[in-house]
Amino acid sequence: MQIMEKDGVVKAQFEENELKKLTGEVSHVALDIGGSLIKMVFFCRDNNCSGHEHGNKSSKDTNGLTNGYSEYPVLKGKLHFLKFETKRINECVEFMSSKQFQSNGGCFCKAPACDKNIIKATGGGAFRFADLFKEKLGITLDKVDEMDSLVAGVNFLLKGVTGEAFTYMDGKNEYVQIDQNDLYPYLLVNIGSGVSMIKVDGDDKFERVSGTSVGGGTFWGLGKLLTKCKSFDELLELSHSGNNRVIDMLVGDIYGGTDYSKIGLTSTAIASSFGKAVSGNKELEDYRPEDVARSLLRMISNNIAQIAYLNALRFGLKRIIFGGFFIRGHAYTMDTISVGVDFWSKGEAKALFLRHEGYLGALGAFMSYKKDGLTDLITHHSASEPPKNLSNCSTVQDLNENGSIECTFQLSNWPV
Question: GO CC annotations (predicted)?
């Protein structure tokens, strides 16, 4: 799958080989409809899998997840990922219509105990656009709690997908395989249009402990006003070639190029974001848009990192996991967040990032099909290997944009 951008419009275009993969039976569609983006996860049955299989006994795979009991059929296929801008929701509706998702959205056609016109959805848009999906597709959105979905999505990825979590600092990445027995507690920082910070103590035990309105929507909104960029991705790409020091006031600017060593601040530390714009006699048009984008990205990333660390300190948490489509696998964003967490914690806390960072809510909504007959979901391996070296990349080439997860799951409502 390739995400193509033209004239500020994000469109999803599937290559020929991807279209072939989607000729199989599609089911269990889940949506996370946020203020800025619609995230979609759906299962497509493997074309090479004829019929369904039954396991001989209950067992566990290498990830420690149970694969169910013999009376439940095993279905093989892939989870696919897709996103649309919320303001272009009609493109999402048209895509679902073209793939006839409305004819088998909630289950496989052969399964008798389900309503095929019901799909799982989370996010504020699940309420806002419920009538639209009903009118255009005949689909009823079964609304799943947003926080429940986020946590379920993260836990699924950390437990079931190899190479999902990684650290990133100074141009170097390191993938982290987390021991399931040592997963909790952790702080989930979900950066969407705004930011939610959730303390997770167990599979179904969590609480939202903080948040901030300064998030991805702030970056996109201010960036649009200040640079005239027409999309989030365009703004993010613009920031890659920018120099924030042209606009940000540094410690060295105040102290004549020297450090403020008494309190541990280097001369290159930012004393005031956009601070130089105050003292100069320049107007907005005198600054390069890429420098403005860079300064804006760094300001928001630093702010999120600091608030995240303070909440981790509040609860004695060492592991902070960042998710949401704000990050987009962008190297500079991750490096800024990581350096911020490392600085404020004096190296005691670590920032972790996820390859499927933007699909946490949609994955969690997908997992909620369990109560409707999806008894177990087991991943086998990712369709693409994690990148080995990110030092020369501006963006992590991850599964957010061009991949799927091979998996099997079982249906308890399928006739044996």
Answer: cytosol; nucleus
Task: Please determine, for residue 3, whether its predicted confidence score (pLDDT) is greater than 50.
Answer: no
- When divided into structural domains, the chain yields a total of 3
d(CA 311, CA 308): 5
The answer to whether residue 28 sits within a structural domain is: yes
Residue 66's identity, in one-letter code, is T
Residues 106 and 142 in one domain: yes
- What number is the average pLDDT over the span 156-185? 88
Asked, for residue 1, whether it belongs to a domain, the answer is no
Segment 198-226, tens digit of pLDDT: 999 998 899 999 999 999 999 999 999 99
- Residue-averaged pLDDT of the chain: 79
Q: Are residues 36 and 175 in the same domain?
A: no
376 and 348, same domain (yes or no): no
- Quick one: pLDDT at residue 321? 97
Domain boundary among 354, 372, 396: 354
| 143: CB partners within 8 A, 6+ apart | 121, 122, 126, 127, 130
In a domain, 159, yes or no: no
Cα–Cα distance between 49 and 46 in angstroms, integer?
5
**With bands split at pLDDT 50, 70 and 90, how would you rate the model's confidence at 125?**
very high
Boundaries of domain holding 270: 248-286
Alpha-carbon distance of 79 to 362, in angstroms, equals 11
**What CATH number does residue 329 fall under?**
3.30.420.40
Per residue in 265-310, pLDDT (tens digit) is: 888 889 999 999 998 789 999 999 999 999 999 999 999 999 999 9
Classify residue 3: in a domain, yes or no.
no
Task: Give the integer Cα–Cα distance in Å for 223 and 280.
Answer: 21
Contact 289, 238 (CB under 8 A): yes
Query: In terms of pLDDT, which residue wins out, 394 or 313?
Result: 313
DSSP 218: H
Helical H runs in 6-141?
A: 16-21, 89-98, 125-128, 130-137
The helix, strand and coil proportions of the chain, stated in percent and rounded to the nearest 5, come to 35, 30, 35
Cα–Cα distance measured from residue 182 to residue 184, given in angstroms and rounded to the nearest whole number: 6
Which residues fall within 8 angstroms of residue 242, CB to CB, at 6 or more apart? 288, 290, 291, 292, 293, 294, 295
If asked whether residues 277 and 304 sit together in one domain, one would say: no
